[in-house]
Amino acid sequence: MPVLVAAIVGALLASELRSSWLEAHVLAATARSMKFSVGPGPSLAIHYPSEGPYDHRLGYADLPEFVRRLKESGYKVTAQARDSGLYLLLTRLGVYPVYHEKNQAGLQILDRDGNSIFAVRYPARTYSDVSKIPPLLVNTALFIENRDILDPQRPYRNPAVQWSRLSRAVAVYGIHEVDHSIPVIGGSTLATQLEKIRHSPEGKTHSPEEKLWQMASASLRAYADGPESVAARHDIVCDYINSVPLAAFSTQGEVTGLGDGMWVWYGADFASFNRLLTASERRLTPTEQKERARAYREALSLLLAIRAPYYYLVQNPERLTRQTDRYLRALHKAGIVSTSLYNRALREHVSLQPGARHVQAANFVANKASDLIRTRALHLLGLNDIYALDHLDLSIHTTIDKKIQRQVTQFLEQLADPTEVAKANLSQYQLLAQGDPRSVIYSFTLYERERDANVLRVQTDNYNEPLSINQGTRLQLGSTAKLRTLIEYLQIVERLRDKYGALPAAQLKSAPVQPNDKLTQWAIQYLSNAPDKSLSAMLSAALARTYSASPNEGFFTAGGLHYFANFEPADDDRVLTVSEAFQQSVNLVFIRLMRDIETYYLHHTADATPKAGAALSDQTRQRYLARFADHEGKVFLARFYAKYRGQSPDQVLETLLRSIHVTPRRVAVVYRSVHPEAGVDEFSKFMRSHFPPGNLAGVDLQKLYSKYGPDSFDLADRGYLARIHPLELWLLNYLQQHPGATLSEVLAKSAPQRQEVYGWLFRTKYWNAQDVRIKTVLEEDAFHNIWRDWKELGYPFDSLVPSYATAIGVSGDTPAALAELMGIILNDGVRNPTITIRMLHFAQDTPVDTVLTREPKRGEPVLSPQIAQLVRAQLIGVVENGTGRRAHGGVVLPDGMILPIGGKTGTGDNRFNVSDAAGHHVGSRPVNRTATFVFMIGDRFYGTVTAFVPGKSSANYNFTSALTVQVLKDLEPKLLPLTERAERKGPMNQA
């Protein structure tokens, strides 16, 4: 009886080993229970893979970190996968996630309606199923890796286990453990290899235990759709060919899959490659047969390189050539390769040629929106490069309107054509009458206000480079700065009302006011006499204050005396209200207004008094002078550091001497200052090498050496003797001792020297010079206060130029920051969050499927609604009565409704001016020319239009901000569907 039982058991076991029937049904039932579903909100039943190349590349392993960062940026999980209990148990034990994995994934960016803006798939060249792969290629891969995996006679077969192969590998591994000279052989089937290259750390097997988990995972995956595995085995073959790792190339990154491998390593066209390998040899021409043989040899080499991709493809391609020849013979002997193909392939001498591919030039203009989204996504996810982002299994849902974005982009591109320029009415007088239109860079941005956010609809430019003109550069945008200056002025009026508005008349009359503090004087006078002391009334009255527009006055600002001009000479003799000057963009009114703003802050700064001279205490004067010396010394040192950066110690000294008129005394002072430790022989040798013998006739080098040593004169005197700034001498000496010193280190070590070289300034007989320097420091303090207010309203830079010219644009700005300011104004002083990315959907249809959506966030009040409303009226006045008249009439909707346009214009003709020693202007060098219109349309839309010409060629152009106003006017028909769609939502408070 025991023998009979044993025989029956043995027979059953043998049958099971041949058919895998029982195994198939048990594993299929287990796989069916390893399921997942997606539900609302965050999941407590989710397992993130953590090891394999596939899981890292697609972002699955990094999802917890992505979710954490996105939550910190205002997003929340609104949907996520829920994994079954068995799924969680097995994956935590070590089984890899079992589901239908993606052969191809990558970043997708969608517009507001779900239309694709950008999509990349990785690998780029894949087979959708095994039937699409040339049979010759399938048979070759199976011959190399797993010859009978597709056997149709065994429908329940487990493709993860090949017992004969596994037992042989186990036996050899046991021998290897005793004798390490015996190499280990692989026991993996195609299915387990696929698990390894996708999910094992680094795509490698590190232990027998890990091999068991690969086999278990592959087994469960094979039966995920039921006990019959025929279809799954076909999928395994397809997945393997699509997923094989083929090393990495510098411009491509990691190469995955045979299709991409053929393109990267051999420059093969995927469609032609498949056609050649699928076609019958007899129907091909001799030339095509030769090409077929070459393509097959290349494909075979890559299938063989899978075992050690870097070794074969990078380190030792000659070894790969020999291995390919060996396998060609074996494949021919096995009948997989015909004799004619074998002979031709054996004669082909192929070489890896990754540089031979034609790489299409990037079209940065067409990709402006997607590049913006990708850049923001990099920041949100904490990634370091676009390569990693593009390979994620991720869909990003944005607020961009693809159709309008494309139409605006096409319009801006057309403006390079003189014919289109004429059609767009831009070649008229003072628009684009001069200069080549192809060199003008246009930028356009449009936002739409929603109830609790501002959403980006369009952002584009016609600059075919990755740089964004909208926010990537600091541009002098001319009179758009008057908008910030006007708001600053009104904020001061508001503060003065807060301070004095509740005081009775008697206290107002006795309130201390400095004689030149005109804003405080006016506020007290207004509050003493006005019947209506409300903020709105006082702000309106402030706009009615008048200033002269005369250019015939010099202004001491930025450390010197400056004169300014109006754009229109007809304004020179006028006296205008602040409102009129804003709408007509009159420079001199705003120069004087900025002077009053500065004066207001001078009298609200600690230790500042109306007289920057004698009225200051000695201690206070010394403190201000020390600050001036420290600041100006840093400016000079930064300039000198840039001059000598990257030069050797010997080079810096030669550079200095080439920049001065050399005399024996000057060179002696320089050398003794830079090399104080050098002896007289070194000094003499240096002097003789820099002067012809006749020039040193009668010169006692020993005496020069002794007389001009660093112990004979202080740093300031040595600078005077050498006619060189003393700090330049100090810097060269420091760089000799510290060749790799950074600028930060130089500034930190030079603090005493910066004070020393300005020692003359601290002497009391130089009070006039002191007063000038103190006023410069006080002006910096005043402009720091102005900068804080501007920064609160989105000014993008960390400082302002302390000059009245900041009111007309000298401190620079960006179109993006101006648009942010317009959004605040349009939203009654509340800064709503700006949204470009609404939702991110990771790993769709996988067990880690995760959706994050931007959470609504309350806006931040940064400007009083009274100021915002008043400024809006002024912006409409610019269009109705001032420099933006070309946009007069607003946007007319199909139902006859008119959306008014308001905005602020600005023109920048930016140059480096050159003056002689007496301060007279002797010339200028053009830097760039800009024209900007920051605008609002109705109560929902706002944005910017900018025209920009960089470099010397800007001297050939004379366009003004009228150009950008006309561009907006010409774009109105293209924007009409957007504005009409928004208005159908109803008024803003119902949107």
Tell me the layout of helices and strands.
Layout: H1 2-19, H2 21-33, E1 36-40, H3 53-57, H4 63-72, E2 75-83, H5 85-93, E3 107-110, E4 116-119, H6 135-145, H7 163-178, H8 190-199, H9 208-222, H10 230-243, E5 245-249, E6 253-256, H11 258-266, H12 270-278, H13 286-305, H14 309-315, H15 317-333, H16 339-347, H17 368-381, H18 386-390, E7 394-398, H19 402-414, H20 418-423, E8 441-449, E9 454-461, H21 481-500, H22 505-510, H23 518-529, H24 535-543, E10 546-548, E11 555-557, E12 560-562, E13 575-577, H25 578-584, H26 587-602, H27 618-644, H28 649-658, H29 664-674, H30 680-690, H31 701-707, H32 715-722, H33 726-737, H34 743-749, H35 751-756, H36 767-792, H37 815-826, E14 830-831, E15 834-835, E16 837-842, E17 850-854, E18 860-861, H38 865-881, E19 891-892, E20 898-899, E21 901-915, E22 921-937, E23 941-950, H39 962-983
Parallel strand pairs: 3-7, 9-15
Antiparallel strand pairs: 1-2, 2-17, 3-4, 5-6, 7-16, 8-9, 8-23, 10-13, 11-12, 14-18, 16-17, 19-20, 21-22, 22-23
Helix pairs in contact: 2-9, 6-13, 8-9, 8-10, 11-13, 13-15, 13-16, 14-15, 15-16, 19-39, 21-23, 21-24, 21-26, 25-38, 26-36, 27-36, 29-32, 32-33
